[in-house]
Predict the structure of Inner membrane-spanning protein YciB.
Amino acid sequence: MAEKKPINPILKMALELGPIAAFFIAYVKLREQVFTIGGTEYDGFVLATAGFIPLILLTTGILWRLTGHISKMQIATAVLVVVFGGLTVWLNDDRFFKMKPTIIYVLFAGVLGVGLLRGQSYLQFVMEEVVPMQRAGWMILTRRLTFFFIGLAVLNEVIWRTMSTDMWVNFKTFGLTIAVFGFFMAQGRVFGKYAIEEEKDGGD
């Protein structure tokens, strides 16, 4: 297994959030325009999506190059971006890309749910090195995160099916990021109660 290499956290955040920010900027600049390519008309959303696909692959590749590691979550996200983003561009239909977050969150909830049914926390396997915590804490956090992902999937479906594309883009760019950040901030009591303190050498 390749050893993980340290990376500047600011650079890591820029690589992870950069494609989302670029998509938002491109959409805002192109949303009122229609482009004819090969005899087919494409709106700004579809073109922004077309640019997002290679960008997410590029930044994921850079992360792998710099750290020697890519999480399964990052791989799944990149694959779904290629599949649903590709369908959006190919069929000139923005519904596929709007469904992508739903599929991602249902997939994550399903994986975590299978682990819970087996009495395991797959989240612990991914985050244990970063956040040392007792098994009971991981099980609580995993249950909450599973329902949280289900909630996000439902919310994404409601927003893209009932509201404007502008509203969905704002939700995807800002709403989802704030929601995930807020969720983990709200778990402070769990992290505090079940944290594993590092053992100190008493020195005989």
User: Anything to note?
Assistant: Confidence is low (pLDDT under 50) at residues 200-204. Residues 1-92 form one domain.
